[in-house]
Description:
By secondary structure, the protein is of the alpha/beta class. It is built from 12 helices and 20 strands. The protein folds into 2 domains: about 100 residues, Urease, subunit C, domain 1 (Roll), CATH 2.30.40; about 300 residues, Metal-dependent hydrolases (TIM Barrel). Strands 2, 3, 4, 6, 7, 18, 19 and 20 form an 8-stranded mixed sheet that branches. The protein has an 8-stranded parallel sheet with strand order 8-9-10-11-12-13-14-17. A two-stranded antiparallel sheet has the order 1-5. InterPro entries: Amidohydro-rel, Metal-dep_hydrolase_composite, Metal_Hydrolase, Metallo-dep_Hydrolase. Pfam families: Amidohydro_1.
Amino acid sequence: MKKIILTFLFPLIIVACSQEATDQSTQLSNSPTSVVMTDLTAEAIPINGFVINNAKILDGMGGIIERGSIVVQGDRIVSVNTGDSNVPGALTIDAEGRTLMPGFIDAHRHIITGDDPADWLANEAEPDMQAFLEAGFTTVLSAGDAPQQILELRRMTAENEIVGPRIIAAAFTGLAAGNALAGIEGDPARFDNARPPLRATEAMPALPEEVVRGQIQALFDSGFDAAKNVINISPGGPEEEALKMIVEETQRLGIRTITHAVTVIDTLAAMRAGVDQLVHTPHIGMLTLEEAQQIADSNIPMTSTLGIFVPFYDENNDPIFRDALPFPWDTISSAGQGPVNARLLWEAGVVYGYGTDTTYAPSLTFKHELKSLFLVFSEQDILKIMGQNAAINIAMEDQIGTIEAGKLADIVLVNGDPETDIFDLLNVDVVIKSGQFVVDKR
């Protein structure tokens, strides 16, 4: 069977935005504005910044301006207005009715592909990073990639040696001495030890406390932003206590704990340990309303990744898994259970954010995850999942994820209206990252 050919595709400069300066530089205007039709990625941005007029604005929080404008100076949004804006000396752009939104965030993704991470960094990183931008993604959380290369990629994109999304880097940590992800060929989710018959039936050996805590210090010293772990509770095993130690260490060091939990029992254990981010949505077992409310009450955000167990299709229309091998039909129940539990969690009040957990091309993965989300969420829901909620999942809600004065100018212009057709999100025309135009497909 032919397989899909896959192409894969911090420092923040914080500028204080004075309201007085904004008031002096921004004036609402009903007069026609000049239209810039040159390639915006090659356009010099004046010191007075730029204005985007004639846009439908979806602010990522549920707010809508049917015809509005935005003013950007430096790397920040300085005002969001109803009607057009006029800033003397600024570059003025006519959105021509396009929808203006926050730059997209993938809160759980694998970036580096192939068998040789060093070769990927040298030869594939640049086009792969451009592919993320072309799809509208300005921030991506790497949920476990080759350590040396992902840290170098984060540096290169932050310093503009490679034009690409902002990278947040997480490294794997262990909770027990056994019961690691099983399987010989293909994706480990095919052989998930969270599922019977591979799920542990006796306690796994504990790691020494100094090992559990020491691995967090080591990844912190290496420069990682977060510690990622996979929790599969064994009967009477050490996993929950080890995770509590990890949470203590990440809190001490000021980094984050991200926990892969795919069953109800594992999700509840991670919740009790107090992790910072739950990923994958429990898709093995049915949440009760009481359990969903417990998770919501913990105030721990959760990242979607609903599309993992929904078939992709190759060029012969054969169903394939995330690894491009034939789809494992013994996992198909998760394609329904995940969305059902996702909606229960949403109704309970969980902050549910967008993430994919794939290595497929960003545009393909984006469409696939939207398809899965749209089973149980409305356009309005998904826009919030893509915006504010995704930012909360990666603890960057004070910087990105919404269109507000003072936020980083991570912006996309979409040809269409995702409020009425969510798949219009796939029609990205312009992408702005930190106030710089990085894509212009108009």
